Amino acid sequence: MRILGTVLAFMLVASPAAAWTPHHPVGYVKRVAGTVTVERAGIDKPVRVGDAIYEGDAYETGSGSGMGCTLIDGTRLTTGENSTFSIDRYQFDNEEERFEFVTRLWEGTYEFVSGLMNKVSPGATQIVTPTGTIRPDGTRFVIRVAGDSPPVRRRVRRG
């Protein structure tokens, strides 16, 4: 029994699934149309309704595709076809009073509907694009970042 426990523990630590799921989800996928992929910890995976969203995730939608998600503070994000975006940083902690949301839109269309984050900590949200940074204080808007070529996967850089 002791050997079985050791083997199971090793399999859990060594398996790719264990390495690619961070601790706490920051939201959940509510809608997927067409082909949408997420890159998490260097692994690409198709996105499905109900999937958890984590800090550091990078998403890409294909032609005729899109996705919608809701973060834990109620913020809603919707992307259209040929979009590439990432969730770089997300903290929504009432007890510690830490609020920060940094997302990048590399290319495509992105609809933002603010949740509690902007109400309890105005200015805590940043939407970074190739040409500038938006700090929304409104409740809803749409951004379009045009590209000269088909979408290119951008890796999330931490640090």
Protein architecture, described:
The chain has 159 residues and is mainly beta. It has one domain. The chain is built from 3 helices and 12 strands; from the N terminus they run ααβββββββββαβββ. Strands 1, 2, 3, 4, 5, 6, 7, 8, 9, 10, 11 and 12 form a 12-stranded mixed beta sheet that branches. A hairpin with a 2-residue loop joins strand 10 and strand 11. It is globular. The N terminus and C terminus are likely disordered.
The percentage helix is: 10-25%
Strand content: over 45%
Number of helices: 3
Please mark out the parts with pLDDT under 50 across 5 or more consecutive residues, or reply none: 1-22, 149-159
Helix- and strand-based class?
mainly beta
Shape by Cα distribution: globular
Distance between the termini: 43 Å
Run of helices and strands: HHEEEEEEEEEHEEE
Average per-residue pLDDT, rounded, comes to 81
Using the CA coordinates, give the radius of gyration: 17 Å
The total strand number stands at: 12
**Count of discrete domains:** 1
Largest pleated sheet: 12 strands, mixed
